[in-house]
Structures are given as structure tokens and as C-alpha cells.
Predict the structure of RNA polymerase-binding protein RbpA.
Amino acid sequence: MATGGNAIRGTRVGSGPMGEQDHGYHADRIAISYWDGLGNETVRYFAAGLPEEEIPDIIDHPHSGLPAGRDKANPPEIAKAEPYKTHLAYVKERRTDEEAEQLLEDALVQLRERRGQR
């Protein structure tokens, strides 16, 4: 026979004489729905006596991870991630030859000034 621990068989560790009403499970609550940008709904429960300004307008949707708002018609927009830039995209953004020559000239002037100071 395997024995272990000091819990009495048939009881839960940490349980006591308190019932559900003592834990607050039967407190008056209000249900508020939140929608994310994909149309997913989640319901959060808040205490009925909680002031309106303490109830958040935007939460993180637990399943999609997107921000969710209380307005079903206008949910928060999905953040747009910038796609990975290829080498060709960087080449297209490269400076003109005139700008490159000016940068080179400025760098050479700074280098000559430093060498002249030493």
C-alpha cells in the first residue's frame, strides 16, 4: 500500500469550511463583450458595482492575441507588420551618385581635420 503526504483521503488540500458564497462566486456581475479585428468575441465579467470608467475599453483577446474593443462595428485595427526587405529593396533606396560623392567628401574632410589635429 502506497502512502504519502498528510492529507486525509477524500479531501482537497487547501479546502476549508468556506463555501462558494464566501469566495465571491455569487457576487453580482455584468458581462461585457469585446471584439477583435477578426470578428472574434470574448466575454469578460466585472463586478456590478464597478464604475464605468474602471472597465477597460480595449483588452488583449485571449485567443488571437489581438487588441479587442467593446464596439462591435468598429473593433481595433490589426497592426500591420512591415514585410521583410530584400537586398533589391535596399538597393532601390540607395542614395544618388551626387549624394554619395558629397558624403564621401564630408568624410574625407573630417578625416583630414582629425589627422591635422594630431
Q: What stands out?
A: The chain has a mean pLDDT of 79.
